[in-house]
Amino acid sequence: MIFVGLLFLFHASMSLQYHVPIASQHRDSVLSVRDGDGELHPNRIATVDDQSTDIHLGQHDAVSKARLGERCGPGKRKCESYLCCSPAGYCGMTAAHCMSPDCQLGYGTCDADKVPEGKSTKRIQRPHIGGVPYGEVIVTCKVPYTFAMTYDDGPNEFTRDLLDILDKYQAKATFFITGINSGKGQIDDFTRPWGSLIQRMHYSGHQIASHTWSHQDLTASRKLRKQQILKNEAALRNIIGGFPTYMRPPYSKCDEDCLRDMDQLGYHVISFNIDTADYINDDPDKIQLSKDIVDKALTSPSLDGRPYLAIGHDIHAQTVYNLTEHILQRVNDAGYRAVTVGECLEDPRDNWYRWDYRSA
Ligand SMILES: *[C@@H]1O[C@H](CO)[C@@H](O)[C@H](O)[C@H]1NC(C)=O
Ligand SMILES: [Zn+2]
Predict the structure, then answer these.
(1) Which CATH number is associated with domain 137-355?
(2) In angstroms, rounded to a whole number, what is the distance separating the alpha carbons of residues 265 and 221?
(3) For the chain, which residues make up each domain, given as ranges?
(4) Which of 63, 76, 307, 331 could make an SS bond with 141 (beta carbons 3.0 to 4.6 A apart)?
(5) Angle subtended by helix axes 194-203 and 159-168, to nearest 10
(6) CA distance 68 to 190
(7) Contact 13, 5 (CB under 8 A)
């Protein structure tokens, strides 16, 4: 089952809008490049043969990789291995060239290709502990009068202030963390603030969940989704000593094969039943629309304690500095509690993580 609805598509396109403009709609064509993997083999001269109408490639074109400033991408060359192929198809090494998810994978290097330090988590046992299902999409909470607010794509520059706001209301939330998106660097690079923010979330009683290493579309390939999950696990292990059993797929895209892999990797796949649409309303003149969505849900005449699982993004200023406080007040007014996803599903905290007890 592919769970891509209209809302999900909006989410996808708006998440991308946060980044540099992209060429990812052309990504499928990567597969149709000569030799399947886009590789032009050195020393091989392509010629027009009986079954081909290919253009005649000279030897020079066949052996060289694109250099700084040259074009790259589907139908063009790969960059030299130390360069990134930007979303617009130029080789370079600035953050804008290399930032994932939109840096062109396979046409040079990308932030996505970085690997966290320490042992891989792949050999850690993944028993299906607890009563919450694994490998199937969960859209709603269970415990009456709970409201699980979730924040995707961070941490980022506003996250510290968001944690202060949550503290002020003694509210708990769930953070679907992405390891290296949007040029922010690795979450486990402690010269940056992300690692200590994640520790603070953890020790404040919020829930840490995975939103993959670099926010790629997990339906692309099995290899990619395993790497995307395992690398984020290693990075989170480097920060809190373990990794989550809860995840949300980027762009809300996880087809049957992907769900099977999430099941095998021991993950609860979390969707939502309220989309705050904060990503399209990140403007003082528009954020009221997001507030209205939440207000409508919490004042429904047939409310009766119906639990909610809401999605937002801590990378947007209006979400952090305006929407969140509004939501927390409304949640209180409605007699609800702002809790983590684990709590709203009645899953004890011990089941939210798998600890890595191996020595480094
Ligand atoms: C917060 O949202 C309201 C609309 O609900 C808007 O009028 C106000 O300007 C926003 N405040 C800030 C500081 O952006
Ligand atoms: Zn996301």
Answers:
(1) 3.20.20.370
(2) 15
(3) 1-38+60-113, 137-355
(4) 307
(5) 20
(6) 30
(7) no
Query: Once rounded to an integer, what is the mean pLDDT over residues 298-313?
Result: 94
For the Cβ of 288 lying below 6 angstroms from any atom of ligand 1, the answer is: yes
Q: Is the CB of 320 under 6 A from ligand 1?
A: no
Q: Does ligand 1 have an atom closer than 6 angstroms to the CB of 287?
A: yes
Interacting residues of 55 by C-beta distance below 8 A, sequence separation 6+: 46
What's the mean pLDDT in 60-69?
A: 80
Q: 162 near 320, Cβ under 8 Å? A: yes
pTM of the model: 0.84
pLDDT-derived band at 12, boundaries 50, 70, 90: very low
Average pLDDT for the chain: 87
- Are 209 and 179 in contact by the 8 Å Cβ rule? The answer is no
Q: How far is the CA of 176 from the centre of ligand 2 (A)?
A: 8
Q: Is 90 exposed, middle or buried (0-12, 13-18, 19+ CB in 10 A)?
A: buried
Render pLDDT for 217-233 as a digit per residue (tens, 0 to 9). Answer: 999 999 999 999 999 99
Structure tokens at 331: 């949640």
